[in-house]
Each structure stands twice: as structure tokens, then as C-alpha cells.
Amino acid sequence: MAPGLSFHPTPVHLAVMEKGRPPGFASPTAQMAGVFLGLTGDVYGNMLLMFPEADADRLAATLIGQGQPIKDKKQDLYGSAIEEAGNVFGSGVIGLPSRSLALNIFTAPPKLVRDTFATIWNMLLLPQAAAPGEPVVFQAEIICPGWNSKGYFMMCLTRESVAHVDVLMAQSPVSRIDVAMGDVQVARSPSILKVASLGSCMAVILYDTKTKTGGLAHVMLPLASAVDKSVSARPGKYADIAIPALLKRINASPATLVGWLVGGANMFPKLANPHLQVGKRNMEVAREQFKKTGIRCLEEDVGGVTGRTVELFTATGEVWVRVGYPPRKLAGINSKP
């Protein structure tokens, strides 16, 4: 923040919003400026930093060192400054829970909206409207010393997101393992194996129903090259050797194993070059390996043009895939062939 400018948030309050707007806030017709940051990944919702419009412009002028707002700068330079303030503030808010709970929370680019309080309030709640239950809003007032005004910071989450965080906070420490590109990880219950932002890469997942041991390979390319010296260090890099590497590490009979395939998106849908269809080839080779080893693949969540986040919960054998909202549970270990 600019020298001499500081924000003092009041204590955070929790409210379950059913109808209308929360008490004690600005008039519904008050002209406001709000910066939205959409949240996806392990939680789904919106963050909002909002001030009366005139104060937002004063904030922007202070940030860029002008002192007082200049009218013709309102829509461009000031807008960018206000968006950046929202981005910095929001990133700071989600940083601590993300690190302490090992959450993957992704923020959309900041978006400035200048409108009435009522309109901005409805925009905050709208993305969560399709989710079960009423959305949950965390809110705090923002006091700027020397200004006869106040702003608001709000985080609106789905009930499911809040429940997910509550479970993580209540659990005894659970090992959450992020599987890097080209890597293979194997873990026993109650660990969680996770890959975030799968694009053309493929998550090859195996689970031993007898020992509750899971394995995940983060596949990058379809076929191993004889000249690639990194294979021993990154056994999950290629689809044709990932499943053999997983089998070796899990040390289980294919008869007690089940599997899933997730990813393989086409990240260049407008380009017809077959060399760029890496996701499709990863899928084909991984399917061949499942067939060759005799391991039953319970379900695939593959293709398309959108990235995915996937988690394997070894305590239950559940696989969850997130592409925005709602997350989807793939066919489970009790599914019939």
C-alpha cells in the first residue's frame, strides 16, 4: 500500500444470508465500487472489497500518488489501481488458510464493478445460488483512518465449501501430498493424494482395496524416450511406464486394484496440429496400460478443454474432481463392473 495509507479491519463476523441484505450496511441505493475475486479449487465462492465510489477513487488516487482524484482518470487508471488493491487484500486474506490447511484456492482476475450497493450485493451471492443450502458470508468493516467513511470486505462461500474446511480443521493431521509433474506418489490411509490444475497432463490413479493404499502418477507425455535420462527420477512422466511404476511401488496384485483416469484436456482447441493433441494421446496410452495389466478402470473424467483438480482420499477410496462448481465424485470402489 502507499505510504500513509492503512486499512484497519474490524473483527470478522459470520452470517448465513437468506434474503435481503445484512443489517447495518450501506443504503441499497448507495453508489459503490467493488472489486470481485472469484474463488475455485477447494472452495467455491466470491471475495469482495467494496467502498463508497467517491472513497474508492480517493483510495486509487492515494495509491498512485496523486493525493486527490482527477475526474478523467476515473475509468482507466483509477480502475486498475482499485482492482490491484482488491487483489492484494484478497490474496492476503486467503494466504494463511491456504498454507495452514494445505488448500488449493485459485482466484480469478480482479473485476471492478461500479453500481449500487444492492446490485453489488446480489452479484456477490449469485454464483453460489445453484449450490445446496444458503450461502455463508464472512464480513468485516474496513476503516481508513482520517476518512469519514468505511468500506467492507466480504467472502461468500457455499455451504459445502465451509463444511469442507470445517472437516479439515477438525481432523487429526492428515498427510496431503501434492504430486508434481512426472512424479509418482504412493500413500496409505488416511492420506490424500492430489494434483491441481491438470491440463493435457493425465492423473493415473490406482487404489488397493485390501490395504487402502493409493497411488497417483502425474503423466505428462504418452511414450517414453530411450534418450530421456530423467525417467528413473520421474517415473510418472510417461503414460506407457506410469502404471508399471505404480504397480511396483504399491506392491499389490492387480486383482485387488482399481483405477481412474483424469485429465487429458485439449489445451489448444483452435489449433489442428496433431502434435499438440498431447492429452488425447496420453488417454489412449493409459487405456492400453489398464487393459494390458488387467486393472479395472472404474471411471474416466477426461478430454474437454478445461483444466481439473483431482484428489484421492485413501481412507475411503473416493476420487473427487473439481472443475469449478460443483465438485464431482467419480465411481467408487463398490461400483459394479
Overall description:
The chain has 2 domains: 8-166, Chemotaxis protein chec, CATH 3.40.1550.10; 173-329, 60s Ribosomal Protein L30, Chain: A (2-Layer Sandwich). 25% of the residues lie in helices and 31% in strands. It has 6 helices and 18 strands.
What is the count of β-strands? Answer: 18
Task: Give the topology string: H per helix, E per strand.
Answer: EEEEHHEEHEEHEEEEEHEHEEEE
CATH first level of the largest domain: which class?
Answer: Alpha Beta
Average residue pLDDT: 81
Query: How many domains?
Result: 2
- Poorly predicted runs: 1-20
Summarize the amount of helix as a percent range.
Answer: 10-25%
Structure, briefly:
Helix content is 25%, strand content 31%. It contains 6 helices and 18 strands.
Topology:
Blueprint: E1 8-9, E2 13-16, E3 31-41, E4 45-52, H1 53-63, H2 77-100, E5 105-107, E6 111-116, H3 117-125, E7 136-143, E8 150-157, H4 159-170, E9 176-178, E10 184-188, E11 192-198, E12 202-208, E13 213-219, H5 239-250, E14 257-263, H6 278-293, E15 296-302, E16 308-313, E17 318-322, E18 328-329
Parallel strand pairs: 9-11, 14-15
Antiparallel strand pairs: 1-7, 2-7, 3-4, 3-5, 3-6, 4-8, 7-8, 10-13, 11-16, 12-13, 12-14, 16-17, 17-18
Helix pairs in contact: 1-2, 5-6
